[in-house]
Specification:
The chain has 104 residues and is mainly α. It has one domain (2-103). The protein is 83% helix and 0% strand. The protein is built from 4 helices and no strands. It has helices at 2-22, 29-49, 55-78, 84-103. Helix 1 runs antiparallel to helix 2 (29-49) and helix 3 (55-78) runs antiparallel to helix 4. The two termini are 14 Å apart.
Length: 104
């Protein structure tokens, strides 16, 4: 169950980060509200996951999922560019997350 909580926290992290971009510096109301709610909900689910998961594992995986998700959505939704080197680094982060899951 803690892994599901961590996954929910990670999805919510990506959600609030994307909506923060859409809020245009908190000048748009709905994306700003979704950012705030998503941020709080993400922290709550992360805290629930940390009841059973080690701090370092949970936090590294949460931030790693966030990096991967926001990077991919930045390219898809906002037409941001990603170099081959950046893609390689994101793949290394994915490898770290897989390693943490297998070893935790």
């Amino acid at each position: 169950m803690e892994w599901i909580m961590l996954l929910i926290a990670a999805v919510l992290e990506v959600t609030w980060a994307v909506f923060m971009k859409m809020s245009e510096g908190f000048t748009r109301m709905l994306p700003s509200v979704i950012t705030a709610v998503g941020y709080i909900a993400s922290a709550v689910f992360l805290a629930l996951a940390m009841r059973k998961l080690p701090l370092g594992t949970a936090y590294a995986m949460w931030t790693g999922f966030g990096i991967m998700g926001t990077t991919i959505l930045g390219v898809l939704l906002f037409k941001e560019t990603m170099s081959l080197a950046q893609a390689g680094c994101v793949l290394m982060i994915a490898g770290g997350i897989i390693g943490l899951k297998l070893l935790a």
